[in-house]
Amino acid sequence: MTAAKALSAGPQAVVERLGRVLDPVDARPRPPRFGDGDLNGAPAPTGRKLKPAAVLALLLQDEEGLDIVFTRRADHLQAHAGQVSFPGGRQMAGRETLAECALRETQEEIGLAPEMIRLLGRWEPYETVTGYEVTPFLGVAAAGQVFTPDPGEVAEIFCTPFDFLMNPVNHRLEEREFRGRLRRYYAMPWKGRYIWGATAGMLKALASRWANGHPRS
């Protein structure tokens, strides 16, 4: 079933297609294939030692459709204050898998227990300009969850329709100055929320899988 047919068939067909086009949760890690440098003359990977991290793109499913959950980081944080992101963070090396990291961070940041989430798979790690190798996972939970944001990290939790994020029409290429250089990046603004940078880059990679199927290595 194509992406368009899955969307027209309903949320369960979308979830089933996603399960087919993603890598298994416990798949052997791939080297980064996407990153902040892709649009700025230095495609990832760069060969530097990267810090492993994981995030969870959480789908909320009901009979009408699917939404992806985002957090807006607290304004007082030293790093990435106020930015929109997926729940996630740095892996505790030797103490958890990347999937466990994504689930732990999700529980810590938005209060949703791992047993409420069904992981569908993962896709290519993303290399950030700040030196992280971020592995994104996709999970699904029933709509109507009650979230409890961690006030030390999260200022807001909001949801954006899955079909909006997967539509290339909504993937804008923008630029701004960062550390004295003009850098280009993807952005997917939605109702006053500014989804951009690494989060938008990971969504762009997910959209490619969603539209085209599992990429050949």
List keywords for this structure.
217 residues; two-stranded antiparallel sheet; 30% strand; alpha+beta; Nucleoside Triphosphate Pyrophosphohydrolase; 5 helices
List the topology elements.
Blueprint: H1 3-9, H2 11-21, E1 34-35, E2 51-61, E3 66-73, E4 84-85, E5 88-90, H3 98-110, E6 118-122, E7 126-127, E8 132-142, E9 154-161, H4 162-166, E10 172-178, E11 181-187, H5 197-212
Briefly characterize the structure.
The protein is built from five helices and eleven strands.
Q: From the coordinates shown, what is the CATH architecture?
A: Alpha-Beta Complex
Shape: globular
Strand content: 25-35%
Look at the structure and give the mean pLDDT: 87
* Rg, Å, rounded: 16 Å
Structural class: alpha+beta
How would you spell out the order of helices and strands? HHEEEEEHEEEEHEEH
The CATH topology is given as Nucleoside Triphosphate Pyrophosphohydrolase
The CATH class name reads Alpha Beta
Helix content: 10-25%
N- to C-terminal separation?
22 Å
Number of helices: 5
Going by CATH, what is the homologous superfamily? Nucleoside Triphosphate Pyrophosphohydrolase
Q: Outline the low-pLDDT stretches.
A: none
Strand segment count: 11
Major β-sheet profile: 9 strands, mixed
